[in-house]
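Annex B. Sample input.
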Amino acid sequence: MKVRFIIPFIICIVMMIGSAGAVWGNASLLSQYSPVLSSGPYKQLTRMDELASSLYQAAYTNNRQAGYVQVQQLQRILEGELKYSAGMPEGWRVMEQDARFIEQTLISGATTADWLMEAARLRLATDALVRPEHALWLQYENIMLDDLSRVEKAWKRQTGDGAIAARAAMNSLQKHAERIEPSIAMMYGIMHGSELMERIRYTNQLLESKSLSALNADMVTHSLKSLKEAITRVYDQGGRADVLPAVAPLGAANPLSWTLFLGAIISAVLTYSGWRKYKTNPFGVKPLS
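Annex B, continued. Sample output.
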């Protein structure tokens, strides 16, 4: 009666071996095609992010030769098919414009300050594509709100030069808004951040006005309030368009390996049950003659 547990035991061993083979075989299959998979959009996206980061470092250290090489490589990616796999078309156009500006600036022999802003814009935009949930440009909400707080404090000065001080403080806010403009366009389209830029332009226009009447002062106060609301709306989670993923993730589940694994468990249970019956009655039940 050993057959009660020997057969299930053999089946259990076979299924365990098959389950392990299915898992390792699947991994082998993926490794076989890894060169093909690695050349897909996600690798290009990662490469673009690396180039943008290196380009920013080159601009920060005024490494013109390295910057020129990197911006040319970045342009080849920007002009390729990747733009149809992720992000918004407006964002890709803005990035292409910034890359062309950097290339022309380096050819013309301008200084670092003339292409550092564009390098930072490209860095933030590519970072937003690769890691949208934890992108660097998301940190600019608090930065711009701090800028606006300094503008409001300068505007409320009692020394008679509030408009001049507020206009000077607006420069930092405007630079930060311009820096994240490609990121907003890449993630949500060009119109998503247009209100912010228009509010900045209008507030600057009011602060530069020579008229310091009470009506003008009220308009400045109201414009600063609207500017704060515009900053908040840029980062508002509601009503945002979903970003197209670069690639679809590979499925991790393997039905065959799960089937063999469950079969091995069932066979192990049957083996244990048969072994217990054998220990209780090793010779089985004989019929009476």
